[in-house]
Specification:
The structure holds two protein chains of two kinds. By secondary structure, chain A is mostly helical. In chain A, 60% of the residues lie in helices and 0% in strands. By secondary structure, chain B is an alpha+beta fold. Chain B is built from seven helices and 34 strands. In chain B, a hairpin with a 2-residue loop joins strand 28 and strand 29. In chain B, helix 2 crosses helix 3. The longest helix of chain B is centred in the first third of the chain and has 26 residues. Chain B starts with 11 loop residues before the first helix and ends with a strand. Classes of the chains: A mainly alpha, B alpha+beta. The interface between A and B is large, with 77 and 95 residues.
Chain lengths: 182, 636
């Protein structure tokens, strides 16, 4: 029994919707680009990243009650984008994610292929995207957004200890895969 | 590898270098991405609407952005008085654009499949549903965007102000209703959306706002009411029944005359239901985005096991997620719980779990049992205490009457009875040792199944040969897994790599390198029987050997020959379960030649059982603790 849909705004047991302090326009202006860039670190196709971010804003627009504190709206949006990216990668990644060392993403997903270049950044991103999804997300939040451990934990809905574990394992696995590519 | 994370630590300089490279690469990638102006993208997408799949996807994406912009604009225009419930929206994307087909698991309940009616407007279909299907006189006038651009929630209600959100979506060119949700108290608590139930199932309704509320179950195809019940004033439960053998999708509708809820459920056979999810509980408003999160939440929330980390599972609709048992500091452990999960339309759910430390032989998953259950567990260490209980399906620890809880040290016969006093029906059998858990669905039928009269007593066998992992709850079914676990957990090799294997019935020798192409250590293994499985009984290496061992009280003298980096070897006293009891270092041969060594190592910790002396060379790379090892028995 049973997956249960999250309570909708206005549903019994949920907080009444109150978005008076949630300035969606300002939120959109302030965070749209950053969120697309965030998604682009995990999903190669920038067009799809833009779709993910649009859908994240649509969710906030549809469910203003879900963000009870406007200050938490950026974190909520980040979570929505990461969840969307994870779902998208699962749909497009039917093979087990326990990839062999040195595995790369399918050709069409790699912008570097189109450009014909394999620089260090491209190799690092390839290696990063071959890691388990949670490790990818923790590493991106930590080393691109420089979020503290507590914020990463809140964004991903996991414990601080789990963040540490994913960060440690992810970094070690990344180093190994980069070493194997040399 | 006593610290679960220590094996993941990079040397400091390598970690800093990797961090710097990662930061630079992420920044370079982010800097290279220039998102399109969202409003310009919307215009471009609309202008090129409609002929290819890619274009269509852009249109829907653009529509989502239009929704954002529309809501933003409305919010700005209303100057703060921006209750989304009062925001008038267009009724969705242009009705000339076709929506995607319904997603798997999504069911149209209105118009009826048997009907030829079609609706090209979301408010129209919601109004028709509210009046004709639910049977409440009222109107629908506004809509809110749902989870995507082609999904809307249309507000419907009579003149008394009660509101029902009717979920509509575009299916191709037509609009259909997929469900309804009351917003003024009325709540269909059980069953929940997507539940799999047998043909006779309980319903629970909370907070009806009027007397004479009803709940019914209807055919999806023609809307015929198959069974119905009145809901007591103030809310309560009832039982709905479909003809025996009924399977398929049905709609449960509850109405108090002014508002309504409607959900689709699945009716299945008892066997199917027995395989269905046990987590999250029906009372939980939660959906899990990934299998690891579902598994971790299940272990903590359902089994009471905190601190177990779950690994990334293979992608797919179903998966088995290995979750490590929480390990006490400095105590090697490797037991896991395999949590079986499935991806449902609303997220990942848990179907059950199995402990790898022992196995529950009976009852089997999905078994129908009487009120007197014979629980049979195999492969349990005699020192281990197990707890078993049976919970009615849908209830968690402490949230519902616990049927029976039995805590006993398992005797060598390996089984016990649970005598239950619970109502018949689907239940969950849970057996746990506190760090791992087996949870499986069973069906209790006290009438149809006679009580067990004898306990099954299949006891685990054990030939008594000592060896790692000792008398713990770990048991290995094959020598390879035992060898690799030993190399990983006790020798702490950087990347244990199996080499040559010689297998002779109940004995085997396996060569394990500390890393691919590294130094070799030979492990001798023995199959002790069903209880403990394969154990490590000997450790040798061409890099070192132990010639003599003698004990004088707490001091153990050891001599031998070894080759080691910088002529230094590590000498340890190790208990049969891997616990380090004492440690020292000494000098040995160098330059590729065996040289003699001698050491006296003090036993700091007492241990009642076999104790070994280990001679080993430290791993110069720092990635592992040792690069090779040799053992000799000190105390049997």
């Amino acid at each position: 029994m049973m997956a249960v849909m999250p309570r909708r705004a206005g549903a019994p047991g949920s907080a009444p919707p109150d978005d008076r302090d949630l300035d969606l326009a300002a939120l959109h202006r302030a965070h749209y680009r950053e969120l697309v860039k965030l998604a682009s670190l995990l999903v190669a196709d920038v067009g799809r990243c833009e779709e993910l971010v649009q859908e994240a804003f649509a969710k906030v627009a549809a469910r203003p009650g879900a963000v009870d504190d406007p200050a938490k709206a950026p974190a909520y949006l980040r979570s929505a984008v990461l969840n969307g990216a994870r779902s998208m990668r699962r749909r497009r990644d039917p093979v087990p994610r326990l990839r062999s060392v040195g595995a790369t993403l399918p050709g069409p997903e790699r912008p570097d292929d189109a450009a014909g270049r394999h620089d260090d950044a491209g190799a690092v991103l390839d290696a990063l995207r071959s890691l388990p999804h949670r490790q990818q997300e923790v590493l991106v939040l930590r080393y691109w957004l420089d979020l503290p451990e507590s914020e990463i934990a809140a964004t991903l809905g996991i414990s601080g200890g789990t963040v540490k574990t994913h960060a440690s394992r992810g970094l070690a696995a990344l180093a190994t895969r980069l070493e194997d590519r040399r | 590898m006593n610290d679960p994370t220590s094996d993941d630590e990079l040397p400091a300089d390598e970690r800093r270098a990797t961090e710097a490279l990662l930061r630079a690469s992420l920044a370079a990638r982010a800097d290279s991405v220039e998102p399109a102006d969202p409003e310009a993208a919307v215009g471009a997408a609309l202008a090129s609407a409609g002929t290819t799949g890619r274009r269509r996807r852009l249109v829907f994406s653009a529509a989502a952005a239009v929704v954002v912009i529309a809501v933003v604009a409305a919010a700005v225009a209303l100057g703060g008085d921006d209750d989304p419930g009062e925001t008038e929206l267009a009724t969705g994307p242009s009705t000339t654009l076709a929506g995607p087909p319904l997603a798997p698991g999504e069911v149209a309940i209105w118009p009826l499949a048997a009907s030829s009616r079609t609706f090209d407007d979301p408010v129209d279909v919601a109004t028709s549903f509210f009046n004709d299907y639910v049977g409440i006189d009222g109107s629908c006038s506004t809509g809110l965007p749902g989870t995507s651009s082609d999904v809307f929630e249309v507000q419907c209600g009579p003149s008394d102000g009660s509101t029902t959100l009717v979920h509509v979506r575009q299916d191709g060119l037509a609009w259909v209703v997929t469900g309804a949700e009351a917003t003024d108290g009325l709540d269909l608590v059980e069953p929940t959306l997507g539940s799999l139930v047998v043909n006779e199932f309980a319903v629970d309704v909370a907070n009806p706002q009027r007397p004479s509320s009803t709940v019914d179950v209807r055919s999806v195809v023609d809307g015929v009411v198959v069974d119905s019940a009145e809901v007591p004033e103030g809310g309560g439960g009832a039982t709905l029944r479909l003809p025996e053998g009924t399977v398929g999708q049905y709609v449960v509708v509850v109405s108090d005359g002014s508002q309504a809820e409607a959900i689709v459920i699945e009716v299945g056979t008892p066997e199917q239901v027995a395989e269905d999810a046990i987590w999250p509980l029906p009372t939980m408003s939660v959906a899990y985005d990934d299998p690891e999160a579902a598994a971790e939440a299940f272990l903590a929330g359902f089994a009471g096991i905190e601190g177990g980390g779950c690994q990334t599972a293979p992608a797919g609709e179903v998966a088995e997620v290995p979750c490590a048992a929480p390990c006490p500091v400095d105590v090697p452990c490797g037991d896991t719980t395999i949590v079986r999960v499935r991806h449902d339309p609303n997220g990942w759910v848990v179907l059950g779990s199995d402990s790898t430390a022992w196995s529950v032989a009976n009852p089997a998953a999905g078994a129908t049992v009487g009120a007197d259950i014979a629980v049979e567990v195999l492969g349990v260490d005699l020192a281990l205490t197990l707890r078993a209980e049976v919970r009615p399906i849908g209830t968690g620890p402490g949230s519902a009457p616990t049927v029976d809880t039995t805590t006993i040290p398992l005797d060598p016969d390996g089984g016990w009875h649970l005598v239950l006093g619970a109502a018949d029906g689907p239940s969950v059998l849970l057996v746990t040792d506190g760090t791992t858990v087996t949870a499986r669905r069973i069906v209790i039928d006290s009438v149809g199944v006679p009580s067990e009269t004898t306990t099954t007593t299949t006891g685990p066998t054990d030939d008594g040969v000592p060896g790692w992992p000792g008398l713990t709850s770990r048991a290995f079914d094959d020598p390879q897994s035992a060898a690799l676990a030993f190399a990983d957990d006790v020798l702490d090799f950087a990347d244990p790599t199996p080499g040559e294997t010689a297998d002779a019935g109940t004995d085997a020798t396996i060569q394990v390198d500390n890393r691919p192409g590294g130094q070799a250590t030979s492990l001798q293994l023995h199959d002790t029987g069903e209880a403990r499985g394969w154990v490590v009984v000997g450790v040798t290496s061409t890099q070192g050997s132990i010639d003599g061992v003698s004990r004088d009280g707490e001091n153990v003298s050891v001599t031998g020959q070894a080759i080691a980096f910088e002529a230094t070897v590590n000498v340890r006293l190790v208990a049969v379960d891997g616990t380090v009891l004492g440690e020292t270092t000494t000098s040995s041969g160098i330059s590729g030649e065996l040289g003699p060594f001698a050491a006296v190592v003090h036993q700091d910790l007492a241990f009642d059982g076999p104790v070994y002396v280990q001679v080993a060379e430290g791993d110069a790379s720092g990635e592992g603790r040792f690069s090779w090892a040799a053992w000799a028995l000190v105390d049997a």
